[in-house]
Amino acid sequence: MQEERHEPYQQPPPTTEQQARQAQQAEQKQAMQAERQQAQQPMPTRAPEEQGEKRETLFTPEQREQYRSRWQDIQIEFVTDPHKSAEDASHLVSEMVQDLEKQLNDRCSNLEHAWQQGKPSTEDLRIALGHYQSFFDRLLSV
To answer: Residue spans with biased composition (Basic and acidic residues) (predicted)?
Structure first.
């Protein structure tokens, strides 16, 4: 008896539509992998254009100098009037917190204004988030 040989079943080649769908699925998979890899990367604490620059402070140099000068006056005043010195220190710190709040509100307003001008790109939002993260980190380090 002669052994019958059967060829294994071979699927017909994919249609053009199937090839297009497979290519699209492959692109989507690559995009998702790239997004996943990017999401795993730590976000810069500062916007890219600021990378490498000296760390930004919460106050301008002029504000810092003015606050330091006032603080020195408060410390000197403590010798002659401790009660007033403590009150002045409280007012100074309150003023500094209000300045920080104003800075944050200004930044939020600028961002909201940009959003109203049109839909921001993902890159614009990434940069904005970098600015917020920088501000957030600086507040936590205080």
So the answer is: 47-66
Q: Are 38 and 126 in contact (CB under 8 A)?
A: no
Q: What is the pLDDT of residues 52-108, one digit of tens each?
A: 545 567 788 999 999 999 999 999 999 999 999 999 999 999 999 999 889 888 877
Angle between helix axes 82-117 and 122-140 (nearest 10 degrees) is: 170
Per the structure block, which two tokens stand in for 40?
């795993």
- The 10s digit of each residue's pLDDT in 30-45 is 766 665 665 555 555 4
Q: How far is 61 from 55, CA to CA, in rounded Å?
A: 13
Torsion of CA 130, 136, 138, 141, to 10 degrees: -140
Can you tell me the distance from the alpha carbon of 30 to that of 38, in angstroms, rounded to the nearest whole number?
12
Q: How far apart are CA 18 and CA 13, in angstroms?
A: 10
Give the separation between CA 127 and CA 108, rounded to whole angstroms.
13
Question: What angle (nearest 5°) sits at the alpha carbon of residue 44, between those of residues 104 and 135?
Answer: 15
pTM for this model (two decimals): 0.50
